[in-house]
Amino acid sequence: MSIDKETVRKVANLARIELPEDRLEPMAREISGILGWIEQLDEVDVTGVEAMASTVEVGLPMRDDVLTTDGTGGGRPEEIVANAPKTEEHFFVVPKVVE
Questions:
Q1: In angstroms, rounded to a whole number, what is the distance separating the alpha carbons of residues 20 and 27?
Q2: 36: which residues sit within 8 A by CB, 6+ positions away?
Q3: Average pLDDT over residues 72-79
Q4: Is the pTM of this model over 0.70?
């Protein structure tokens, strides 16, 4: 895939990036090169290779999902809505903003 100077100008304009005229052509060549490398990746046979998010296997620390009532947890809805001007069953009531 090749990107031309006009495409770079259009993308720069959409991204609100100021790109001088003399940089458009070099940028087009650079982006075309990057897209060429990406196209090369399509040629790699990945049949049977499991998708992964990292090259290092890392487990996430897990904890039980337990409702706490200390300073960091919940279980205090009355305190949370105490200063709200209007509440209903521990929910904030706000004016309707969408008709």
A1: 10
A2: 1
A3: 76
A4: no
